[in-house]
Write a structure and sequence with these properties.
118 residues, alpha+beta, 3-stranded antiparallel beta sheet, two-stranded antiparallel ribbon, 3 helices, binds iron/sulfur cluster
Length: 118
């Protein structure tokens, strides 16, 4: 299984980190040198800016998560990195919990699954 996060859409909610039963995701501070260390193609790597439509949707939502925070602190913030994609068991938990709708999973047959927020 290959898993990556489209970084400019990631709100830092950490839902993926919380729900994945096999620890595919880690939260990284935005300035971390490892922030682009998953399989995301070049156009979806972190280059310093979020997509405006994502910040418009989630920037003012007060749900206890540190949306768009620079650092991962207190359970949210930073950006998710799919550091352990080969362990994915395609339980789909992350796919319905991802606020940014920015998780992409490709199975060994080449089928692609994308997150759609519940
Ligand atoms: S679908 Fe894969 S990456 Fe997502 S929560 Fe389940 S095991 Fe983890
Ligand atoms: S659930 Fe989606 S938006 Fe939230 S931290 Fe994970 S990848 Fe980013």
């Amino acid at each position: 299984m290959q898993v990556y996060v489209e970084k400019p859409k990631c709100t830092g909610c950490a839902h993926c980190f919380d729900v994945c039963p096999v620890a595919v995701f880690q939260m990284h501070d935005r300035a971390s040198p490892d922030v682009n260390s998953d399989a995301a193609p070049a156009e979806w790597q972190w280059k310093g800016e979020h997509l405006p439509e994502v910040t418009a949707k989630w920037g003012n939502v007060q749900d206890g998560h540190h949306h768009f925070a620079e650092k991962f602190e207190g359970g949210s913030g930073g950006i998710s990195v799919a550091v352990n994609g080969p362990s994915c068991i395609l339980c789909q938990a992350c796919l319905i919990e991802c606020e940014g709708e920015c998780i992409v999973i490709t199975d060994d047959s080449g089928n692609t699954y994308r997150s759609v927020y519940k």
